[in-house]
Amino acid sequence: MNLWREAALVAGKDLRIEARSRVTLGQVIPFGMIVVLLFAFALDPDRGVLERVAPGLFWIAVLLALLLAVGRAFAIETHHGARDGLRIAGLDGSAIFLGKAAAIAAQLLVLEVVVGIGVIVLYGVEIHGLGVILLTAAAATIGLAATGTLYGVLAAGLRLRETLLPLLLLPVLAPVMLGATRAFEDGLAGVPGDAWPWVGMLSVFAVLYSAIGVLAFDALWEEAT
Amino acid sequence: MSLVVRLRSVVCLLGRFPALAGADLDVTAGEVVLVSGPNGAGKTTLLRLVAGLVAPYSGSVEVLGIDLVADRRSARRNLALVGHETYCYDDLTATENVEFFARASGRGDTDVAAALDRVALTDAANVVHRGLSAGQRRRLALAVALVRAPSLLLLDEPHAGLDALGREVLAEVIREAPAEGRTVVMVSHELEIARPLVSREVRVEGGQVWPVASDARAPVSEQLQ
Q1: Among B26, B34, B95, B192, which has the minimal tally of Cβ within 10 Å of its Cβ?
Q2: More confident residue, A151 or A50
């Protein structure tokens, strides 16, 4: 089996488990919406502020939901020793990385659509540059999923992984937060031309972490206990 | 007869504790070998070492003619391990679990229904793993292992948690193994049940592998010299 087939097999398995357990639908997406709602309540007296901070709040909600999705992606491998089953099956570590990252990215995209609708409705945001918004979301989501998967396996071998994962991951994702927020601001403000450098940075980040993941995941996966 | 397992002077550490201290073992093709020994002697470590799930600190491990340290992935593709855990996913059905691991091992064309029938799980084919009884889960783990048509089958306490039907199924699988070109290495404490099924017994004690014979005074390592 080639790399892409193995990756598709892992992604399909993870998404099937998510569809059946409904953790993303029942917990991750509601969590993202609660974050958006709480900010709406907190800043409601000033709709102007809400509109201005909407891009940042959107990506904070996505970022926090990513932590849940990554934790979940590796938790399913610890129950009943499933990770050893994958190792014995002889799957390529790179394929496992790509498959897990793809499944996380798919869940994040669903979350972004739902939270995006929430932001538009609750914060009164108007979109002027849909193309830039979509490209930004795609590049940022790939970067988030790749980085999350890479740090997820790093933390998977640690006893205090639930608390260590945010500490390890969030600082690394600061450039994604910055770039995605700025690109969204430009897209919403109707000046998509200003967003391209940020989209470029997000794309480089996504490619870089995807490449690191493909190269390094196998060794990290083998060493994780 | 060709060697399926060849251990030489293997030292394997669990933390700082040497679970195996200079262990040697030869298993030839078609053998069914029982590994006995007291709790904590290193029997499970021995099986996990042969499965490529733990790395030796020193010494050499060859499985099916492949150096495990140099190429774990190739060796793993031709072996299967039924361990203390089922290595299955809670939210996948019995069929989906078997199908996933068959495809992950490059055996996507395998008859999944026949694999489940062999371990008497046809009636529970569409039940998710979490809905199966302990005995059914053990039989599912056996089906997942067999569907990969391994040349080497490693069984770690396979009788634990099995009802009469499960033990009958397991005994049949072990008896048919040599005819199917399969070598079996089984760790068990239930010696009365296990001994009639095997062609040879070795004992793990003090980090060494000992032959089981009334006049045995030296570990396997000294006999191989």
Answers
A1: B192
A2: A151
Phi, psi (deg, nearest 5) at residue B210:
-115, 140
Please answer whether residues A124 and A48 qualify as being in contact, where contact means their C-beta atoms are separated by less than 8 angstroms.
no
Q: Which helix (H) or strand (E) element contains residue B10?
A: strand B3-14
Give the DSSP H or E segment for B139: helix B134-146
Q: What is the 3-state secondary structure (H, E, C) of A121-177?
A: HHHCCCCCCHHHHHHHHHHHHHHHHHHHHHHHHHHHCCCCHHHHHHHHHHHHCHHHH
- Please give the average per-residue pLDDT across A110-129, as a whole number: 89
pLDDT score for B80: 94
pLDDT in tens, B41-79: 889 999 999 999 999 999 999 999 999 888 888 888 889
H/E segment holding residue B115: helix B112-118
- Which residues, including other chains, have CB under 8 Å from residue A50's CB and lie 6 or more apart? A39, A40, A43, A44, A122, A123, A124
With beta carbons under 8 A apart, name residues in chain A contacting B128: 20
Residue B13 near chain A (CB below 8 Å): no
Q: What is the pLDDT of residue A100?
A: 97
- Judged against a pLDDT cut of 90, whether residue A49 lies above it is answered with no
Chain A residues touching residue B144 (CB < 8 angstroms): 85
Cα separations (Å) of A46 from A21, A38, A51, A58? Answer: 39, 14, 9, 17
* C-beta atoms surrounding A21 within 10 Å: 18
Q: Which residue has the tokens 């569907």?
A: B147
Regions of chain B where pLDDT drops below 50: 214
Q: Name the minimum distance, in Å, from the CA of B205 to any CA of chain A.
A: 25
The interface predicted TM-score of the complex, written ipTM, equals 0.87
- Domain residue ranges of chain B, discontinuous segments joined by +: 1-78+150-225, 83-148
Whole-model pTM?
0.89
Residue A195 near residue A130 (C-beta atoms within 8 A): no
Mutate to test the interface with A, among B103, B155, B156 (most CBs of A within 10 A): B103
